[in-house]
């Protein structure tokens, strides 16, 4: 199992800051090494030339029998052993070492009798220059990295802020707010350069507008069809009432009633789709309301009140939701059907084969049924729409031991503060 990183470590700003920091450090280190090597080579070369020049003068003086200048001598104390061996072997060479705690540049060459003639040059000033250069490179690199990271974070944060705004709008659209738009300023001004974020925002706004137009067209079509059907259905219902008693008449009246129910359901869905429905709120005893719904349904449904609750809701709409859930449980499931009230939560469970997988995952879809079930798939759609008007949450699941479970959770009023 890999090490789990914190959530903030996956953000684009953090990744960009880490990338910029690493690249700046690598670039600063590379430039620092190049500058250090170049300046050090130049400084050492100048000090070596100076030491070799003094060695040449000391050699001339030694061969002429003149006195040697200060800093020159034969086998002087402190002469590095490797440098002495080179000089005794007949070679001229230089070496930097420490003499009495001070950096010293030595130059040595052969003298008579297997001895070495050497001069020393103070290398402290050059050493301090290189150390100062290294310190300047370090602090300038730190300053440059800090400024670059801050500027990079500012630029990346502007992009991520726009991306977060686009993501929020996408979530609002997914939740049903089809009026949500990104409205990126770059998309409204064609003269400004269009970056990738603006292209995503424009595509999202275009998709939302297209989706909204199609849904509004579908809603208008549903409402128009339902309204147009009411008039001929009213005449058909009146004509069916005039038919003589008999089995054919009963079948006609039954189909006309089904068509009228379907038409009323379509009208109710079209009203819910507009999003302008408002509940008429009143205080209700949830247990008593559930028992009333079951009695009105005329079905064999068990009502269990584990913990009753008083809720502020629209009684008519809540009865519609519970009535549709009970009717669906008896129509598409098997008994026993149980309605359980536990505080502001009401569950309706049957013991049939359960809800289809698509319904559990995506919710009910109008005019869609599976498994040979009869009906038009509007009852649960209406229940979900009315629950949204009530501000309630309606969830669908399947019990572990079989059966469909619909859970309706009503909003609870905030506790009232008693002022003294």
Gyration radius, rounded: 45 Å
**Spatial order of the strands forming the largest sheet:** 6-8-9-11-10
Major sheet, described briefly?
5 strands, mixed
Shape category: rod-shaped
Low-confidence stretches: 3-10
What is the overall pLDDT average?
79
Number of helices: 10
Percentage of residues in helical conformation: 55-70%
Q: What portion of the residues fall into strands of 2 or more residues?
A: 15-25%
Number of strands: 11
Structural class by secondary-structure content: alpha+beta
Q: Give the SSE order as H and E letters.
A: HEHEEEHHHHEHEEHEEHHEE
> Between the first and last Cα atoms, what is the distance in angstroms?
58 Å
Which features characterize this protein?
4-stranded antiparallel β-sheet; 16% strand; rod-shaped; disordered N terminus; 10 helices
What does this 3D model show about the protein?
By secondary structure, this protein is α+β, with helices and mostly antiparallel strands. The chain contains ten helices and eleven strands. The chain has helices at residues 12-64, 81-88, 124-174, 185-188, 196-241, 247-274, 286-297, 315-332, 357-362, 379-390, and strands at 72-74, 93-99, 102-111, 115-122, 282-285, 301-307, 310-313, 337-342, 345-349, 393-398, 404-409. A five-stranded mixed β-sheet has the order 6-8-9-11-10. β3 and β4 (115-122) form a beta hairpin. α6 (247-274) runs parallel beside α10 (379-390). The longest helix has 53 residues, at 12-64. The radius of gyration is 45 Å and the shape is rod-shaped. The chain starts with 11 loop residues before the first helix and ends in an 11-residue tail after the last strand.
